Amino acid sequence: MKKLLTAFIFILVLSSANAQDEKNVIKINPIGILLGSANIGYERAISQKSSILIAPTYGYFNSSGDKFTIYGISGEYRFYVSGTKYAPRGWYVGPGLEFAGGSVKTADNSEKIDAKGFAIKAIGGHQWIFRGGFALDINAGVQYLSINVAENNQGVGSYSGVLPTISIAVGYAF
Fold first, then answer.
1. Strand 134-151 to strand 90-105: parallel, antiparallel, or no bridges (unpaired)?
2. Which SS3 state, helix, strand or coil, does residue 104 take?
3. What is the pTM for the complete model shown?
4. By C-alpha distance, which of 98, 97, 93, 99 is closest to 141?
5. What are the backbone angles phi and psi of residue 6, rounded to the nearest 5°?
6. Full pLDDT tens readout for the chain, 174 residues
7. What are the structural domains of the chain?
């Protein structure tokens, strides 16, 4: 694990040697933070017109004694369509995949509700990278969502269908 982390840091340092060629963006979803979850994304340009994004999510908060926990991971492939700009800046389109789960434990521990699911999505958006490295990413699209819900380890329901998706993230490009 230590060797993997060292290699990852080495690659990041080498890839950021030229400040005008930002190929990496680390970003957060500010709306998620307001709602009690941390969603930290890492986007890496893999060619002049494409990038990949990976974003783990974790959240934990209490409300009236009930304990809420969420977790997940998502990934996207982005194809940048701006004529004069290179990834990871400008207009983009692409597919995405997300796996997520969560649980609610009541204050008296009498009930536990679990939910697990996945989403397949198609998005379009724009990412701005400003002088100094500040990045703003806004996208929207459509997703097929499938969720299964269990209460005290007994299946109680499910949902699947097509829904809109929207995302706003701020971060730093290097």
1. unpaired
2. strand
3. 0.80
4. 93
5. -60, -45
6. 555 555 555 555 544 444 458 999 999 999 888 878 889 999 999 999 999 999 999 998 888 888 999 999 999 999 999 888 899 999 999 999 999 999 999 888 888 999 999 999 999 999 999 999 999 999 999 999 999 999 988 889 999 999 999 999 999 999
7. 21-173 (2.40.160.170)
